[in-house]
Write a structure and sequence with these properties.
Pfam family, one: DNA_ligase_OB_2
Distance between the termini: 66 Å
Shape: globular
Number of helices: 14
CATH topology of the largest domain: D-amino Acid Aminotransferase, Chain A, domain 1
Strand content: 15-25%
CATH superfamily of the largest domain: DNA ligase/mRNA capping enzyme
Keywords: DNA damage, DNA repair, DNA replication, Ligase
Number of domains: 3
GO molecular function: ATP binding; DNA ligase (ATP) activity
Cofactor: a divalent metal cation
Number of strands: 17
Structural class: alpha+beta
GO biological process, one term: DNA repair
Length: 459
DNA sequence: GTACTAGAATAGGGACCGTA
DNA sequence: TACGGTCCCTATTCTAGTAC
């Protein structure tokens, strides 16, 4: 193994990981980190942060670049230098560029990189911009080999309801609210409050809730000893889903809205990203955390009149029948659905069967009026179909198996070459969706099947 | 051997924001 | 002012690995 930062060595490693299967991928990375020269490993770590860390952003993607920069079929003449610290400085400058002409300056810096280094380095830079390597590993896998290298911001998520996954009765039932998931992180030493989405991005519009959050967290800390960091897991709403997204995604401070706080965590460190499962278990079970929230809300309301904070209802179901009865009632009350929780489960930063969700599902039979090719691994096969919903063209790209994509792609292309005797174009497709959007399209459309048995449009 | 799980990858509508 | 990109919400399938 080379002792100087060597482009070929890192290039070979990436090619090998891309070609490997299963845990061999991580073994290759592990061996490289173990065997390679310290400087080489240091450079690799910095590259991994560029490629996988969502917090490391460049403000431009390869889509915005001129063709000649992204066309690797043409051989570029380069100076062929080894990787050096100048490269990382250049990438940092791309990150920091702002204002008028920032895009042009970024492109210029990438052109300089192309001129100075061997070809793989430009490709690595484009991967960093797009956060898309397609070598079959992502941030969580990298962190298994090099713990703590990349920011991993995770909240607990629910699986679709499956009664076989219910480990016992009763279950806790909470409403499923249709807004934006919000994690409120409170540093109780410096009294700094940050609002994050479930991907770990800040939500500046919620700043007006800061004082109320601080007052509430003080009450929580009176009820129970917490770590330095107190997190409130919540759903933020401000009217309908679209209205909520509009208000919350804006940079302007929110005026009206509700923070439905359904979980509370106390953590010892200063960084939520580092919270371990063991630390999360110290906060107790779902039942215990809910009890703490209820006590805190009760105490808080004795001396305060909350403007934003709200405790969503929580109920008990002793059987599947009771769950479905509650679901019907929830739907009649205009709720999106229910969350079913295991009262004995600990909080986890991942999708977990301790939480399950029931949501409304509807389907319609709609006419196929077009189709489009896939991207990435789906180039050369069907990306999706376009259906007609009351004059609105709705693209449906999810729900196909690989074999369906292949068959439909072939049939639809053949249909395009003839005007008569078309096989698939014009047929009906059963499409599942969550709701009709205010704009008259379909939210979360999913292909279910071709309706070979009927020709009558649902609506 | 079968069933399940986790991770990675594909796809959608629609909102705001920065840049052209 | 329009448009492209990003980021919210989300769905699904496929593969490799693990549990039963």
């Amino acid at each position: 193994m080379s002792t100087t930062p060597n482009i070929d060595a890192i290039h070979d490693l990436l090619v090998a990981i891309g070609a490997a299967k299963g845990k061999t991928k991580l073994e290759l990375l592990e061996n490289f980190v173990k065997d390679a020269d310290e400087t080489q490993v240091d450079y690799l770590k910095r590259l991994l942060k560029f490629w996988f860390d969502d917090q490391v952003k460049f403000g431009i993607t390869s889509k915005q670049l001129p063709k000649q920069l992204t066309d690797f079929s043409v051989a570029h003449v380069t100076e062929g230098n080894d990787l050096d610290s100048d490269y990382f400085i250049a990438m940092r400058e791309i990150q920091l560029a702002t204002g008028t002409g920032a895009t042009d300056r970024r492109i210029k810096m990438l052109e300089d990189i192309r001129t100075k280094y061997e070809q793989p380095v430009l490709k690595w830079s484009l991967w960093a911009l797009d956060k898309n390597l397609k070598i079959g590993i992502q941030a969580s896998s990298v962190n298994k080999v090099i713990p703590g290298l990349l920011s991993e911001f995770g909240v607990m998520l629910a699986h679709p309801f499956n009664v076989k996954k219910v480990s016992g009765w009763p279950r806790m039932i909470e409403p499923k609210l249709d807004g934006m998931r919000t994690l409120v992180v409170v540093d109780t030493v410096d009294w700094v409050v940050d609002f994050y989405t479930r991907a770990g991005n800040p939500i500046p519009s919620l700043v007006p809730m800061t004082m109320e959050v601080i007052d509430f967290v003080r009450v929580v800390m009176d009820e129970k000893e917490m770590g330095r960091i107190v997190c409130l897991d919540a759903e933020a709403t401000s009217g309908s889903f679209n209205e909520s997204v509009s208000a919350l995604r804006s940079d302007d401070p929110i005026e009206e809205g509700t923070l439905h706080v359904f979980d509370v965590l106390g953590l010892p460190g200063t960084n939520l990203l580092e919270a371990s499962d063991a630390q999360l278990e110290e906060m107790g079970t779902q039942r215990q955390r809910r009890k703490l929230l209820e006590a805190a809300f009760k105490a808080y309301k004795e001396t305060n009149k909350p403007k934003f904070l709200e405790l969503p209802g929580s109920y008990w179901a002793a059987s599947e029948d009771e769950i479905w009865a509650m679901y019907e009632a929830a739907r009649n009350n205009g709720l999106e659905g229910l969350i079913i929780k295991d009262p004995d489960a600990f909080y986890r930063k991942k999708r977990d069967y301790a939480w399950m969700k029931i949501k409304a599902e509807e389907t319609m039979d709609l006419q196929i009026i077009g189709f489009f090719e896939g991207t990435g691994a789906m180039v050369g096969t069907l990306g999706g179909i376009v259906v007609d919903f009351k004059g609105e063209q709705v693209k449906v790209g999810s729900g196909f198996s690989l074999s369906q994509r292949g068959e439909l792609w072939e049939a639809l292309n053949a249909d395009m070459e003839k005007t008569a005797g078309r096989q698939v174009m014009g047929m009906l497709a059963e499409v599942q969706y969550q709701e009709v959007t205010p704009a008259g399209s379909l939210r979360h459309p999913v292909f279910k099947r071709l309706r070979t048995d009927k020709a009558e449009i649902s609506w």
